[in-house]
Design goal:
Blueprint lengths: L3 E3 L17 E11 L4 E10 L4 E9 L5 E6 L10 E2 L2 E7 L3 E13 L8 H7 L2 E12 L3 E4 L16 E15 L2 E17 L5 E12 L2 E10 L5 E8 L2 E12 L11 E8 L4 E18 L2 E14 L2 E13 L1
Parallel strand pairs: 1-10
Antiparallel strand pairs: 2-3, 2-12, 3-4, 4-5, 5-8, 6-7, 7-8, 8-9, 9-11, 10-11, 11-12, 13-14, 13-20, 14-15, 15-16, 16-17, 17-18, 18-19, 19-20
């Protein structure tokens, strides 16, 4: 599967020269969901070499509702590879096949909501050893842009100048404290580079699910700090891809909370005029945060069971909000 929608090339699968901006970030993200066994999760490495560190995140959703999590900021001196803090990403075949690995510890959370106070959550809960080795193979086309045609703006207001995504199928193994589980599932990956602050946006909603090797969706609603929200997304069916032009998301939050731990419904308008309804039920949830310059950014990560066109699959619902 090497179809490309946008100006992405095979060379873009590898790291790029560091930009001059202090907040230059290059990141890769991979999620995976094994519906039969009830496991899911995501891995992310964001190289911030001009600031001297990488952001390394591991999140694992377990069948009983528990979540295993780790976040590290290991020191890095360059942007030559995604290899830090026990996490490593390899390009096996550009635009088609990747390998992700993690070797290290993670905190085991029977009550994942405790991560709202990460310091205490890491102190009060047990830690387990994790070994993860996954192969991600494309089932849908690459879609996105290098951002070469975009007008440059203030780096402090940037989030992802270059960005692309792809639906995948995943096979491999997950070992937790010596107990091994085979992973055979589906998911999505993304790759972005350019200046980034998590505080540059007012909010976003990012929904994605790969229902099978023939059908998947990505839904995005982004509200910049100034201006109207940007609604977009794609539906892939086989090797064809259609853009989503309008997005209306109705979310059931916990009372007096930004936590979307219940249900959501997204009404999607396609460029063809077709309308799709995507229904989601959150099966596992963890609240994460990012802080800078006195601002606190909440990022809610929900493993979500989606329904669309009579299909059922697991995916992610990621909600970012600035907490004033």
């Amino acid at each position: 599967m090497t179809s490309v929608y946008g100006d992405i090339q095979a060379k873009d699968e590898f790291t790029h020269p560091l930009g001059p901006e202090k907040n230059f970030n290059e990141s890769m993200y991979f999620n995976f969901f094994d519906g039969e066994r009830g496991y899911g999760g995501f891995l992310r490495t964001g190289n911030r070499a001009n600031e001297g560190y990488a952001e390394v995140t591991l999140c694992l959703y377990l069948p009983g509702g528990e979540v295993m999590f780790n976040y590290k900021r290991p020191e890095i001196a360059d942007n030559d590879a995604f290899d830090a803090g026990g996490m490593r990403f390899e390009v096996v075949e550009p635009l088609a096949k990747h390998r992700t690995l993690y070797e290290g510890s993670a905190v085991f959370l029977r009550e994942p909501e405790q991560m709202a106070e990460p310091g205490q959550a890491f102190r009060d809960n047990p830690h387990k050893q994790v070994s993860l080795d996954l192969i991600h193979e494309a089932v849908g086309p690459v879609f996105g842009s290098t951002g070469a045609q975009r007008e440059a703006v203030d780096p402090d207001r940037e989030f992802a100048r270059a960005h692309y995504e792809q639906h995948m199928q995943i096979r491999g193994s997950l070992v937790i404290d010596g107990e091994s589980t085979e992973i055979n599932g589906l998911g999505l990956r993304d790759h972005s580079w350019g200046p980034r602050y998590w505080q540059a946006l007012k909010y976003y909603r990012w929904l994605n699910c790969t229902f099978g090797p023939d059908f998947g969706l990505m839904v995005s609603e982004v509200r910049p700090a100034e201006g109207a929200s940007i609604q977009s997304g794609v539906v892939f069916r086989g090797e064809s891809l259609e853009r989503i032009s309008t997005v209306n998301i109705d979310t059931e939050f916990l009372p007096d909370s930004p936590y979307h731990q219940r249900r959501l419904t997204a009404t999607l308008g396609l460029e063809s005029g077709e309308q799709l309804t995507l229904e989601g039920s959150v099966k596992g949830f963890i609240p994460l945060r990012n802080r800078r310059a006195g601002m606190v950014t909440h990022i809610g990560e929900g493993m979500t069971e989606y329904r669309c066109e009579g299909r059922i699959g697991l995916g992610i619902s990621e909600y970012l909000d600035q907490i004033q």
